[in-house]
Amino acid sequence: MSTEQNLFQAIISHCKEYGFIFPSSEIYDGLSAVYDYGQNGSELKKNIKDYWWKSMTQLHENIVGIDAAIFMHPTTWKASGHVDNFSDPMIDNKDSKKRYRVDHLIEGFAENLAKEQADELLATMDKLLAENDFAGLKSLIEEKKIACTVSGTVNWTDVRQFNLMFSTQLGSVTDEASEIYLRPETAQGIFVNFLNVQKTGRMKVPFGIAQIGKAFRNEIVARQFIFRMREFEQMEMQFFVRPGTQKEWYEKWKQTRMEWHLSLGIDPAKYRFKDHVKLAHYADAAVDIEFEFPIGFKEVEGIHSRTDFDLKQHQEFSRKKIQYFDTEINQNYVPYVIETSIGLDRMFLLVICNAYAEEQIGTEEKPDTRVVLRLPAKLAPTKLAILPLTKKDGLPELARELMDQCKPYFHCFYEEKDAIGKRYRRQDAIGTPFCVTIDHQTKEDGTVTVRHRDSMEQERIPMSEVRNLVMNAIF
Ligand code: GAP
């Protein structure tokens, strides 16, 4: 059984062992803060994406989705403020030459303090960050004797700003090529398409544009597994509203997004809102939805009231009018924006952490343990495992028949090898909600044994009802 401290490590190992997540290019010793999703991870990730996409687009008549390119005209990032402002205060240790994001360094230190001291330290840090007081931050680090994890010394440089965008060259001839950036957020692809979507979709304010896609940030301290990556995916939605109504919509989206999280059956006590002390350059209000990971409460989603900053900036830099004519009030204006932005990989980590359980099972005489992923059925990579009891007597043929009935509707897995108990354990470990065993009785009366993942209870039902049982659980 894992203790609190090594629970996170156990989850990371589990993700690798069961084909959820591998370090990127592992045969070359991996690439820091870059990860690949394996056969089960990519299914789970896709299911999270689909769940978000459906709830945002299909269930909101006034929200449509787009898929913009990762490369964008370089002026986009000048207009959005990312060239000038998308940086974090960093500090270097002079002995180890290791660079840290100042907030991560202090937060890491605070994790080992008593709650009261930690809260006090983090409040001081938040205040200094909000005031851009870099000298104050350095003094705080020195005063608390916060040491580098490599050299163990407190020999620090001054605190400086570093831009987090990756750049590359567009074009094959170096002198003619222009520098472009890998997008650090998907949001700008939505802003630059505001008029295209509004006009072609005949959208009326208030309306939203949703997008799922890759984003890239040169995170300096990239740690904690897929919590902070250099290449990651975002699921973002920009909701365009009439100026003056943004507060009301901000509150509405705060509630709507929290309801989405809770709709997955996760304990509400594991969630909390955290208002931003230091607002981003574009926001007039911002809050994080935080989840209690095994490494503490951390941000999983941000809800930002972005004012009309982005559209106005693009209007100015492109010299194209980006406005909306509101027929209800007979006025032209640049809409205000409420953004909901959730990291897909972070949501994946949340779902796995919430689902992972190590359990004592069996009897007093014959105790046993199992690792089970109690994933919501709609997110599980495999919905149904079909397991003939033996490889003979016509049982595999019957199992294949069930497989053919079910696989057009949801992801199924077929397996004949090993004792049934072992096969159940493997399915528990990847979160398969239902296992069906085909045995000799199936040949006689057409019934099968359904074994439920969470309760481990078994029931006999007609084979013809299996498909509906699973369908009811996943929709
Ligand atoms: N468009 C607004 C925006 O990008 P953000 O707070 O920087 O806001 C939104 O990012 C979400 O993206 C975060 O709440 C987090 O879930 C995810 N995210 C940000 N940086 C990440 C990283 N380096 N690795 C994984 N997810 C990240």
- Quantity of strands, as a count: 23
Silhouette:
globular
What's the CATH superfamily of the largest domain, by name?
Bira Bifunctional Protein, Domain 2
How are the strands of the largest sheet arranged?
A: 3-9-10-16-13-12-11
Average pLDDT confidence is 95
Bound molecules: glycyl-adenosine-5'-phosphate
The gyration radius over C-alpha positions equals 26 Å
In total, how many domains does the architecture comprise? 3
**CATH classification, class level of the largest domain:** Alpha Beta
| Alpha-carbon distance between the two ends | 34 Å
- In terms of DSSP E residues, the strand content is 25-35%
Which CATH architecture of the largest domain would you pick? Answer: 2-Layer Sandwich
Biggest sheet descriptor: 7 strands, mixed
Instruction: Give the number of helices.
Output: 16
Structural class: alpha+beta
CATH topology of the largest domain: BirA Bifunctional Protein, domain 2
Give the helix proportion (percent range): 25-40%
Q: Which consecutive residue ranges, at least 5 long each, have pLDDT under 50?
A: none
